[in-house]
Design goal:
211 residues; alpha+beta; 2,3-Dihydroxybiphenyl 1,2-Dioxygenase, domain 1; 8-stranded mixed sheet; 4-stranded mixed sheet; 12 strands; globular
Length: 211
């Protein structure tokens, strides 16, 4: 079984990303920390019992990781995109058997690596070149080693309602995820179109679209 775990909002800086989120949801991502393996850092915002929004940026104080950073952060295309402002660039799906799901996925998921942030430990798929799968529409897989981190995040009064996947092969990608174990009632839909993501979050009694 796989499930929507968290959303990746990339930004040039954490401050810029947090301000972007606050302007839309009225809640400020906090906490988080550093990822020594990738030279990145983050802040997080709880969106449910087992889901959250991750604001992610290159850590200017970290040494170069000696490998491409995850989620395409090193690519000229991503850096040009983030010059226009923070953006919802990717999503991560939780699995209970990362080897099985990476092996049977319809796209090459890359290596399974051990990662950490503070006391958190997890295993995650990372393509060799750090690229986003299917323009960010097909998720990265993660398997947590221990409890889910959302349980320790402060209440944000924000709730993830749904995630829309847009891609020229959106229907086929969603069908592949269903085959891997994404439940039919999971809050993930797909449509044909230029590749992009739209998350619908309920905050302060309003349904707000993030993209």
């Amino acid at each position: 079984m796989i499930a929507l775990d968290h959303l990746i909002l990339a930004a040039r800086t954490l401050e810029e990303g947090a301000d972007w989120v606050f302007a839309r949801l009225g809640a400020t991502p906090a906490g988080g920390g550093k990822h020594p393996l990738m030279g990145t850092h983050n802040r997080v915002l709880r969106l449910g019992d087992e889901s959250y929004l991750e604001v992610l940026a290159i850590d200017p104080e970290a040494p170069a990781p000696g490998r491409p950073r995850w989620f395409g952060l090193d690519s000229p295309e991503m850096q040009a995109r983030l010059e226009q402002g923070p953006a919802l660039v990717h999503w991560v799906a939780r699995t209970d058997d990362i080897e099985r799901d990476a092996r049977t996925a319809p796209v090459h998921m890359g290596a399974i690596v051990e990662a950490s942030r503070g006391d958190l430990r997890w295993r995650i798929t990372v393509p060799r070149e750090g690229t986003l799968l299917r323009d960010g529409i097909f998720p990265t897989f993660i398997q947590w080693q221990g409890g889910h981190p959302a349980a320790a995040m402060p209440e944000s009064n924000c709730q993830l309602e749904s995630l829309q996947l847009f891609h020229p092969r959106g229907g086929a990608l969603l069908a592949a995820l269903r085959h891997l174990g994404l439940p039919s009632d999971a809050p993930v839909t797909a449509s044909e179109g230029d590749p992009h993501l739209v998350a619908h979050v309920r905050a302060a009694g309003k349904l707000i679209a993030l993209s």
